[in-house]
Amino acid sequence: MKINKTRIKIIWTLLLFTLFYGQLFAHSGKPKYHVIIDTDGAIDDMRSISMFLAGNDIRVLAITCSQGTLLPNTVYLKVNSLLSAFHHEGIPVGISKKINFNLPVWSSFAQNIQWGNTVSQQNIDLSQNSIDVLNKTVENYRNKITLIALGSLKTYADWIKADPKIADKIERIIWYNNHNIKEGFNYQVSPNSYEFIKQYGIRIDIVENNNSDLIINRDYLNQIQSSKSIYSEQIELVHTQISIVEKIKEKHLYLWDDIVPLYLTVPILFDMETKDNIIFASINMKIPVNFIYEIIGKLLISATNTNNRVFNTFPIDTALYKTKYAKILNQTIEKFGLIEWKAISMTNEIHGHTGIYSIIGAKMGVRAMEYFNVGVNNLIITTFAGNKPPLSCFNDGIQISTGATIGQGLITISDSISNIPSAIFEFNNNKVNISLKPEIAEQMQKDIKYGIKNFGLLTDRYWLYIENLAIKYWSDFDRHNIFTIRKI
User: Fold this and answer.
1) In CATH, what number is assigned to the domain containing residue 270?
2) Which of 6, 55, 68, 375 has the fewest Cβ atoms surrounding its Cβ within 10 A?
3) 476 φ/ψ angles, rounded to the nearest 5 degrees
4) Residue 176 belongs to what H/E stretch?
5) Mean predicted confidence (pLDDT) in 129-139
6) Is the CB of residue 204 less than 8 Å from the CB of residue 279?
7) Which of 270, 304, 338 lies at the terminal end of a domain, its last residue?
């Protein structure tokens, strides 16, 4: 019996609902996928990396930059510029060695594309060798790792050659390449690397786009626009560059590496065949192209999920809030996101009043999770706010925003006390000190002194003043501008 288009659309709509509300949005606080990404700097890599970073159930542990489309140093700058745009500067990035391979004809096109914020070589560490970064990343990591190869397999092969025991920590390698393996560009960059890994017995999944209709076009860009996340906005911004617009008009840009994160998270969309212990995967040709675009859009917005435990969705109906909070709700969520809104709202409820230092703590906690691109319950924290209010109120905001509570043993209140709110955050062998900028701390102290002078200490008028002041900080202070972050 012939199935009409309406029935097909209903079937795939139901499938989408099942996939994304039963899988990607069912995050329990711990990621399902633990990945390291290797990229060679092509434009489709930018889109693919953005999707990986946006995945609510994906933890990107490190990114390595290898030669292929571009030289490793050039790729390194592009990756760091992208991470800066997303405020994920804490993800380690490594540079692989140059190899004896001529860059392809499309390298000049890729060279001129700006991925993110402008990053100067003077401001980043060009000594970050890929092998060292990979070793540090997996040294104490408990879960097995999925290696994502958006270019050749050279970096991963070199890593395993240097320490064969690393293979025990690898769950599989997902590699974008032609199913006629030796015809693929990513194979041709380093044929020996593929042959080495294959003989080593590590599982390899080879993903390929065999659908000529899966292109970057207006339908794709419209779907990206509707996602309204920092990741979709960056992809859209990158694709307004003149050279890319021209390629889109020529129907030259396809979804290539873009489909690798789809394969990781929604493998049901793919046809798979196993041959010689290798899994070959390609998107099922019966799936409408617009649904693929819609799935990409859902993936790009999934990181904005607040991962609630009690709520189905965190309440943002202004009718549920007191008037002074309802007034700032929409504009504050628009500026700083729902995750921060939830963190500060819960902090105020648990803290017992709308406090200044507790709000700063919540904003800092959200910034730290954003820096490392992790969710709650993943950071080890030491604060320097002591146990004496009002400064110690900062500790409540830190705990509630990050889930690093006293009960979970993830937070330590140091005996050393700083007059400026600050804390050390640690994730997977990497540490940073985040502190409030001195000029912001000075402004807050002046504001508090003004309240004491004019309303008296701890009077009803004083507490009303503090609440209004805290609401102002909540809605005005941008967490990306008020803190200093220093690697340790």
Assistant:
1) 3.90.245.10
2) 6
3) -105, -40
4) strand 170-176
5) 96
6) yes
7) 304
